[in-house]
Amino acid sequence: MPSITPFLWFTGQAEEAADFYVSIFKNSKITDVKRYGEAGPGPEGSVMTLEFELDGQEFMAINAPSSDPQVRSDEFAQGKIALFVSCKTQAELDELWDQLSEGGKQLPCGWIADRYGFAWNLVPEGLLDVLGGDDEERSQRAMRAMFQMRKLDIDELRRVYNA
Question: Does residue 39 lie in a domain region?
């Protein structure tokens, strides 16, 4: 069974919001921060995603640049909650992708707007290994490849990373 994590969508204030939430709830902390590299689409060095816990509940947040032409306000908006689904296998991701996108809309970078208007980010296990690997050049190459995908393909991302 895949794990499901609430995913908060921001257009620039993810870190500020997470710091604020963590300051309010006991037993809370920021557990990981990923920053945009030269491949963008956000300003290099700015926060791309972060993970945090509020009293033990895991959350993720993203700063989606409002200037990104792939992100339209009718698909996502500041302050929406999306659901992040970490899939153990590509087959599991493929099945969920087909089911959740039925009657909805397939969007870039593993995102789906389902038929009810909720956003889902289906991510294969191992994605952060290629996007946040020790070799910045290889990670940025994988990031650029991911930006060209709708449904994420971990084998292709690993191939690009290792090329």
Answer: yes
